[in-house]
Amino acid sequence: MGRSIVNEAATSGATTRGGPVVGAPSGADGYGDKLLKLIPAEVIALYMAMDGVINDNGDNSTFLTLLVFGIGIFATWFYLKIFLKVDNYPQIIISMLAFAIWAINIGHGFQQEALVKPSYAALALLVFTFFAPKIPMGKTPKPLPPL
Fold first, then answer.
1. What is the pLDDT along the chain (147 residues), one digit of tens a residue?
2. Domain coordinates of the chain in residue numbers?
3. How far is 136 from 91, CA to CA, in rounded Å?
4. Is the dihedral of CA 63, 41, 86, 27 positive or negative?
5. What is d(CA 43, CA 71) in angstroms, rounded to the nearest whole number?
6. Residue 69 and residue 109: Cα distance in Å, rounded?
7. CA-angle at 114, arms to 116 and 35, nearest 5°
8. Count H helices, E strands: the chain?
């Protein structure tokens, strides 16, 4: 299972010059699969490690909080696009937003600097996690050029 979300549009009628796509998934990703693919757990773990180092050193400045947060946003794009070869841009953008919401809820800096009210951040996490897999991310495979 790759990290790219498979929609109904991507599986119906996908063909190559010789017929159906070989190895194409038999069905679209369900709600749970989409949810797992949208949450960048690896980057969230990286963020938690960086945030923990900053918190242990007592350097909880707003600048460091926002710097580590920005690194996490970039790392989400980089990890999905470069390492995992996800080319569905709506999926990448939604995953970047997912990282932001999770980081704000997890990060010590956001809580200690009072940058975000924790109850609002928790509500955003709940609403986003519930609705994100239902956001349309249609991507159909590109047809091959004729011979």
1. 688 888 765 444 544 444 444 444 457 889 999 999 999 999 999 999 998 888 888 777 788 888 999 999 999 999 999 999 999 999 999 999 999 999 999 877 777 667 788 889 899 999 999 999 999 887 554 554 665
2. 38-134
3. 9
4. negative
5. 10
6. 10
7. 30
8. 7, 2
